[in-house]
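Handover notes (outgoing to incoming on-call)

Open items:
1. Dynamin-type G domain-containing protein: sequence verified, structure written out, both below. Nothing else pending on this one.
2. Nothing else urgent.
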Amino acid sequence: MSRNVSPDRDFSSSGPSTPRRAATSGRPQYMTVGSGSTSESAARLVALLDDDSGYGGSIRSGGSNGSSWHPGLTHDRPTPSHTPEVTDRHIHQGYYNRNKTQLLRAINEAVDTLKDFQAFNQDWPAHYPSVQRADPSEPTSSQRSDPRPGLHHTQSTLDNHYEPRGPPPSRPGLARRAGTSLGERGWQPEASSSAARPTAEEPRLVTPQLAQNFLSVLNIDLKMGGLSQAELVHSLEKKSIASLLDGQIRKIRQHLYALRERIEDTSSKVLVTGDLNAGKSTFCNALLRRKVLPVDQQPCTAIFCEVLDARENGGIEEVHAVQIDTQYVRDDERTYDVYALKELENIVTENERYSQCKVYVKDIRMVNESLLNNGDVDIALIDAPGLNADSILTTAVFAKDAEIDVVVFVVSAANRFTQSAKEFIFNAAQEKAYIFMVVNGFDNIRDKKRCQEKILEQLAGLSPATFKESSELVHFVSSSSIPVAPLGGPDGPGGDGSGGSGGSGSGFEVPDGDDDDEPSGKHGEPGSPPGKGKGKEREKIRDFEELEASLRRFVLEKRAQSKLAPARTYLMNVLRDIDSLGTFNRNIAQSEFNRVTEELRTLAPAFEKSKEAETEVSRGTDQTIEETANNVFTHTREHVGSSIARLAEHDFGVQYPGLLSAYSYAEDLKAAMIQEISDSVTRCEQYAREQTSDRVNYIKSLGLLHLGDNYSPQIFRSERMFIKRRDALARQVDFEVETLDFFDMASLWERQEKVAGTGMAVTVAGVVGTRLVGGVGWVDGALGAAKVVGANNLRRLIIPGAILTVILGISYALASIPRSLPRRLSSKLSAQLAELDYTHKNALRISSEVRKALKFPAGELQSELSRNARELRGKKEETSRFRDEAEHALKYFTNLVRKSGRIRNVVENVNLEGPAPGALVV
Ligand SMILES: Nc1nc2c(ncn2[C@@H]2O[C@H](COP(=O)(O)OP(=O)(O)OP(=O)(O)O)[C@@H](O)[C@H]2O)c(=O)[nH]1
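Dynamin-type G domain-containing protein structure tokens:
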């Protein structure tokens, strides 16, 4: 094994770990390892450094003596030539830009759509699907509540003829917004703006299985009080759901903004990770062609080091060490400590104080060569600590970060995949699918073919996708073979040349030319033939350049996937959810529109009919009331009047006990007469009751006719009529039985005349003969008798006759008490009743009670009908409003579905795959 160095480089003066400075010239120094001749790339790099890089100008041009490092990064760098690789990159970039533009446009449209949706959701709370509860028979809260709260109040009874009815029959619900079953069980829509309305039947829409997949990003996360989401959706007010949905949409919008920002960000992050001491830092330095990160044979990198273009830091090269638990903000110096680049070595071991450091360095390479700043995308390299039990988790988390576009895994060719490496790759492969593999230290391997086979064999199991693309993604290189400029520049103070294991000491370090496959680490051993070493060296550099080209392609391609794919996926989810929710709501709006339109079709005539019924019933009941009251009035007058009139003839069944008890007889008779009058009134009342009951039933029948089952009048109790305003005849009638009442003077007088005539006739009969017989009246008889008997005889007859007459009269009067007393009493009673206006008053009382009794159901029916008409009017107006709303919602959601579909088509057509990695390289 020999170490061959370029003859024009002086490296003998210092060992590999000693900082080197060009001994003889001021121009950038470098060392090369190998056959002794400069490799093509190294030569190009040297030429570049000498002529173009702005390292302070070429020493040949006699400019600066090169004592200071002036990476003229602010100078224009030459436009790269259109090599196939560049063309490939441009094509990739073209794909990327087109996809990026399409996605950005789609994001903006989606954001606008979501904003609209939020606004619409305020007016028309969107329906949100929920899984129906297990027991459909269980009433919903809305079903539990009375659909007619207004009817629950106790109706104050105006009259005690009526009893409050039982619970009202259920009335058809008012117009409500409810979805229509779309088929399968499991889902049901919720009412929206009609949130307070009862939802008698909540249709199911899709199966619970589908429900789980229904919404992904618009899914409202409801985790409260141990209730399931479905239960919560049920228990929450529709407005609450709408506001939760609003919150969710806001979050989605924010996420879309973040994605948009990330898409617009032209930088890309590459995480370089791998086993301890696998050569990660060496690899990063090789990519940068500058010894930026400290390299040590002992594990040294303890924190994440992100290498960024110094232009992002105002062109200043420095290290920002970010303290643990601090969020790095470049513009806020409080979030980090500033160090010079050369101090990086001390910082990277500092994992007690710092969590990461940002290393701002100037790019020394041409646009077409640089990975860091290649003209298309600014790449930030992140050198991770070597994997071990402690760091594996942190690195895995880091690798999963959405900001990481590409994971480069550095594996030692000699050690192959360790357990930590396997674990990491296996996990990262789930996330990233492709991992860029750098099998480093390949120069140390003697049986390269076997090593390659072994590595690929292991990789096949760890990341099949990467294995499949291994020609593009797996590279066997020797990072330490790549010439790197020292930290301070090729001739700067930091150029210690330790980047290559066999670094020789000039400002630019070219590692040793190990041409042996032995895993020996014996770099730079002298003795190898110079030609062989040179060829091998060139080969290593070529291998590395191929790696760089692949990595650039991979970064560009993966950037598309890592930046655009999450946006695309998320956007697709958002749009799918908008579509699902839009379709769900559109269908509900459609069915609601159909339902309310149909409802309106029947409501209009029902409303007209209700108005007609109101008038008709009003007229009908008024007439009935009047007729019935008049009928009862007339009946009462007639009946009571005739009872009074027939009092004298009425057999009250009161026995005349004789003269001695005549007075009590008279009292009994009087009471019986009063009773009879009262009875006649009672009969009239009974008649009135019957008439009223009949008419109440008639009114009820009218109610049933017009209101159907919705009509539930109070129960009429006819026996409760006339309770308050009873007839109080006994108390009103006030007359004493007088002696004269026992004698009917008129009839008595008439009778006496008859008796006197008879006596005279008897007296003179024998005298005057038959002449007297034909006499009609006692006066005639007397005159006749006077003529016959003669005046003297007659005078003698008068006294006994008169006595006889008186006796007869008295005895007659006494005997006729049972006949004359009723007459007398009845006429006295009649007179008093007439004075009291008894008949009329009772007729009025009874008929007015009838009127009142009938007015209640009539009024009740009337108010029911008015309420019904009012309700129908309200329902009609409300239904019209719902129809307008539903129509508006239908239009909105139809548009929403159409729009989300259109945006989705655009997003779907964003093909992130592009051409296969390297496919375009001819
Ligand atoms: N022969 C040979 N040695 C290498 C190669 N790459 C790195 N080395 C050496 O391997 C040792 C470790 O290199 P580093 O770059 O520090 O490794 P690392 O993975 O960054 O180490 P940690 O971050 O501390 O885990 C150094 O001595 C390097 O010179 C290579 O390709 N070939």
